[in-house]
Specification:
Blueprint lengths: L7 H10 L3 H17 L2 E4 L2 H8 L8 E5 L4 H14 L6 E5 H6 L4 H14 L4 E11 L2 H6 L1 H17 L4 E5 L11 H22 L7 E5 L10 H14 L9 E4 L22 H15 L4 E3 L12 H4 L4 E4 L1 H9 L5 H14 L10 H8 L8 H5 L3 H21 L6 H7 L3 E7 L2 E7 L5
Helix pairs in contact: 1-2, 1-6, 2-6, 4-6, 4-17, 8-9, 9-10
Length: 440
């Protein structure tokens, strides 16, 4: 008698539906072991970006997708798009805040995505990223060490869960009341350097985690060359000698997270400063050897804007809210479930309602908060319903890959990204056991 075939769908659903953290870890380990045996490796994009910084290639922007709901279905769609287009450079990410309100801890997020890779017959590196590991300015002022510890604990969980790409966001600590630009950036570069050092201390042997910094908080004033140089100068002074620093830098060019919602629930048009993006990407590469500049908060931009990212040398672009919107607004999403979720928001997000805003504005702004509460309901929808919603979003993924020219780069990724198998031994200890394709 042969072995029973692996039911990856069941493993993933068991992982998503389990409320026991120990059971979650056991199922996650099973999925990760299967992934390694099939030549699927959680990986760092660091070496690819450093090669970009050296000028060894250009011409495409790496898309980074925040999957807040239906993660298994959407990740499967993305792997299908990547296979059709011979794409290798694309990132699955989730922010510190999103982990909470979508009920997707790192160990679950990684393993659901690896499950999708197994299901779709993917091989090679899979880039999973902690997005906006963000310092809380108010809490940092009250107790800097305590706030640093919160971020360090999050990093331990993330790296331990297979996130080998981490975006540190200490741009919230920039102090624009200071006249001197370096003094404005001081807390930002100091915290970023401390956390980069911490990552280097705990990263698995043989893997250089890709670390990103940020100089301009999204939704605030646009970044300048002076901001970038002041941050990088301070960061390099503060980083311990001999340690690898960051591989990219996030900047502000006029976007805001989720877009600006109008009274009728539609999104206001945004004017994005592509000149700033191009100029700062060039400085980041030529002066500091980084992969380039990163654009946040872009998914609600008009469709005709996306081809401009590769044209203006953007290294990476972050896309999130649009896919959440497409789930909620799909004709296939059951109205009774949507009503249930909105009714829950009326009670549980009531404190976020602003005087004078319409109900459409309230729901648009808060509905992301219902995704974790109703995660099992959404994943419990009939497979045909989930497939229909995912098909709509897969078509959007295809459009974005093409607009960003993120096509035919699988060989380039394979050239620079070394595959490493990692065994997680303890909460803060990792160990590489071997490397190479298809190793078990």
């Amino acid at each position: 008698m042969g072995r029973r075939p692996i039911d990856i769908d069941k493993l993933v659903m068991d992982l998503i539906n389990s409320d026991d953290s120990g059971a979650k870890k056991e199922i996650a380990k099973k999925i990760q072991d299967i992934a390694y045996k099939k030549g699927i490796y959680p990986s760092s994009i660091h070496e690819l970006y450093i090669a970009r910084g050296r000028g060894e290639f250009s011409g495409f922007t790496v898309p980074a997708f925040n999957l807040r709901s239906m993660t298994y279905d959407l990740a499967r769609g993305m792997f299908r798009v990547a296979k059709r287009n011979n794409s290798g450079a694309f990132i699955f990410e989730i922010a510190k805040s999103e982990m909470g309100y979508t009920a997707q801890p790192p160990v679950e997020y990684t393993s659901v995505i690896l499950g999708a890779a197994i299901k779709e017959g993917w091989t090679g590196p899979v880039f999973i990223q902690g997005d906006h590991f963000q310092a809380n300015a108010k809490k940092f002022q009250e107790d800097p060490e305590k706030e640093l510890k919160v971020l360090q604990d999050l990093i331990v969980d993330a790296v331990g869960g297979g996130f080998y790409n981490i975006d540190i966001d200490s741009s919230t600590l920039v102090d624009l009341s200071k006249k001197d630009i370096k003094k404005q950036q001081k807390h930002n570069y100091e915290v970023c350097a401390k956390l980069a050092q911490f990552i280097r201390r705990i990263e698995p042997k043989g893997i250089t985690v890709s670390v990103g910094g940020e100089i301009g908080e999204v939704g605030h004033q646009n970044s300048t060359p002076e901001d970038l140089r002041a941050f990088m100068e301070g960061f390099k002074e503060r980083l311990r000698k001999g340690l690898t620093g960051i591989s990219k830098i996030s900047i502000q060019t006029g976007t805001s997270h989720g877009g600006i919602v109008l009274p009728d629930g539609t999104i206001a048009q945004v004017k994005l400063d592509f000149d700033t993006l191009r100029n700062l990407s060039e400085i980041a590469k030529k002066e500091f050897g980084l992969g380039g500049a990163v654009q946040h908060g872009a998914s609600t931009l008009p469709s005709e804007a996306f081809h401009k990212f590769p044209e203006n040398d953007c290294c990476e672009v972050h896309l999130a809210t649009e896919f959440q919107n497409m789930i909620y607004d799909s004709k296939h999403f059951p109205m009774d479930l949507k009503k249930k979720m909105y009714d829950w928001l009326k009670v549980n997000a009531a404190n976020e309602a602003k005087a004078g805003e319409t109900e459409e504005q309230f729901f648009y702004k808060t509905r992301k908060k219902a995704l974790g509460q109703f995660k099992k309901d959404i994943m419990g929808l009939p497979q045909a319903t989930r497939d229909a919603i995912a098909a709509e979003i897969e078509a959007r993924f295809e459009f974005l890959f093409k607009q960003l020219n993120a096509l035919n780069n699988k060989q380039l990724v394979d050239k620079y990204v070394i595959l490493k198998r990692v065994i997680i031994r303890k909460r803060t200890e990792t160990n590489v056991v071997h490397d190479g394709e298809g190793a078990d």
